[in-house]
Amino acid sequence: MGFGQFLSSPEIKLKVVTFRDVFQNTAQESSRFGEDYCKLSAVIKLDPKDIVKLSIKEGETVIVKNKSGKVVVKAEGSESEESHTGIAYMVNSPWSNALVPDETGGSGVPSFKDFEVSVQGAKGERITSLRDIF
Amino acid sequence: MTEYYVCPGCALLCDDIEVEIEDGKVTKVNSACRKGVARMKGCSDPMECTVDDEKTDVDAAITKAADILREAKDPLIFGHGNSSSQAQQLSIDIAKRTGAYLDDTSSFCQGPIIEAILQDKLKTCTLDDIRHKADVIVFWGADPSNSHPRHLSRYSYFPRGNERQRGWEEDRTAIAIDIRKSDTAEICGQSNFYRIPMAADAEFMEALVSALSGKVPKTSFDFDKKKILQLANVLKKAKFGVICVGLGLVYSLDELEPLFILMDKLNEVSSFHLLPMVGQYNMRGFNQNLFDKTGYINRVKFDGEDNSVKHGADFSVIESLRNRSVDAALIIGSDPLSSLPLSVARYLAEIPLITIDPCRNLTATKSTVTIPCALSGVEAGGTAMRMDGVEVELKKVIDTDNLTDEEILRRIKEAI
Ligand code: SF4
Questions:
Q1: Closest-CA distance of chain A to residue B142, Å
Q2: Which of A105, A121, B39, B72 is most buried, with most CB under 10 Å away?
Q3: Residue range A114-130, pLDDT digits in tens
Q4: What pTM was estimated for this model as a whole?
Q5: ipTM higher than the 0.90 cut
């Protein structure tokens, strides 16, 4: 299945903030190639208003991409009570790192926690596996 | 008598861990957090010993690894956060001998903070000081509930310390400053949570300094002035304050100056310390060991001939890969293909790679040589340094047939 069929779904630009999650981290200790690690990593958490803008439902897959890379992950609503439209959360993982730009402005430190992406609904598309990333 | 072990799951190096062993395997881990339990039980995906994707014995793998490093003009040696100090010393020796680039994760996380602490530019304290004395604890861009799950229960918030007998209920105030309401912010409570916009940490610090100086704290994002003044008041009254610096803060500051100014101001009006929330269990040890030998904590390049050392961003793991200045790499106890930006990781996957790790990881799948090693802190002992700079002796829990990373590095060094 190509990405072409999703061309009609609305695409929005968001900023991504990455965070750490002890459950995902625990899964990583057991196996980086395990199902749990993928399930807990390949997720983007969105503000309810952004979910409406994308005309998707929670739990559907979305394409997240920018100049650096492209991954298909599951969209979830974030638990935050405070609105954070325009900002999405991703757990720190190879999936988020696929989207981190490599420019550092000479500092040697990429923007791991603050980068722009575009997001588009892709219902039914297969979630990117760890091996697909490479 | 109960034997207590040290958990190598993060740089808290909790030393009160009890384990149960059956058939030479760790079957139960008591008192560790879930991440520590998973680390100490070991992974389900052990590394295999391979050369060019073919299984082989460790002697052949070590020979091949030494060949790669000897033939490389500018090898990179990276990792070290999950290795004992003894293994790290050998890594430094190999880097010297091969004229290598040498770096660790601190290069793109807590490096600047550790460097400032080692250069006496920031006042710090130990975790034990925090447990016994700290009354105001600020988690800034830090979420220990997820990154260091026992930080609050063992040290910073919940315990009864010598001078904090009434614990969190009356004796301690925990404050979270963050761009999102983390699990730690949840514990601090709504009135002690300061949600700031992305990349606004430096400006918030400036406003806080104004408030501490009795001026009106203004921000371009119109943060409630009353709330900043309230915060300044709490900080002023602290007897023993600590700022736990997380990656959120480190990444948001282009330079440390605003943090220096804030710490100076805080120490004018009360007493404040800074604690770097180091992730990997012996990252700080690596920084200290390299600092003792070269005066730098990371990002160095040795010159094979006269043993001189170059240091700076150009010698960082990221820039050296981005600029394609390295032609082979030795990775120890780390998975850079997972943790680096993909485009940087892609280049790493193109050059001859050697991976030493107890577990199979993404980097191993692209490596010319993979060598399994004992799980540090469980199948091997050694020395490590906690996030606060205190040395801790790791105790071996169980035996393994795998060599330790220290032994593997020693043999690679000899073979070169
Ligand atoms: S907090 Fe860190 S050191 Fe302590 S048990 Fe958990 S992972 Fe291990």
A1: 10
A2: B39
A3: 899 999 999 899 999 99
A4: 0.93
A5: no
CA-CA-CA-CA torsion sign (A86, A91, A95, A99): positive
- The number of residues making up chain B comes to 416
Q: Is B252 on the interface with A (CB under 8 A)?
A: yes
Pairing mode, strands B75-79 and B54-55: unpaired
Confirm whether A11 is domain-assigned: no
For chain A, the residue count is 134
Could you tell me the two tokens for B326?
């390295």
Q: Rounded to 5 degrees, what are φ and ψ at B9?
A: -75, -30
CATH number at residue A27: 2.40.40.20
Amino acid sitting at position B342: L
A92: Cβ contacts below 8 Å, ≥ 6 apart = A18, A19, A20, A112
Q: What is the pLDDT of residues B277-302, one digit of tens each?
A: 999 999 999 999 999 999 999 999 99
Say how many domains are in chain A.
Answer: 1
Choose the closest CB to B361 out of A32, A89, A111.
A32
CB of A19 within 8 Å of a chain B CB? The answer is: yes
Determine the distance from the C-alpha atom of residue B61 to the mean position of all C-alpha atoms in its chain, rounded to a whole number.
Answer: 29
Distance CA B66, CA B50 (A): 14
Residues 320-379, chain B, touching A (beta carbon < 8 A): 322, 335, 337-346, 349, 359-362, 365-366
Q: Print burial letters for A112-133: b (CB count within 10 Å at least 16), e (below 16).
A: bbbbebebbbbeebebbebeeb
Classify each residue of B53-82 as buried b or exposed e, where b means 16 or more C-beta atoms within 10 Å of its C-beta: eeebebeebbbbbbbbbeebebbbbbbbbb
3-class SS at A114? Answer: coil
CA distance B307 to B315: 16
Kindly list the structural domains of chain B, giving each domain's residue range(s) and its CATH number in brackets, ordered by start: 18-109+281-415 (3.40.50.740), 111-276 (3.40.228.10)
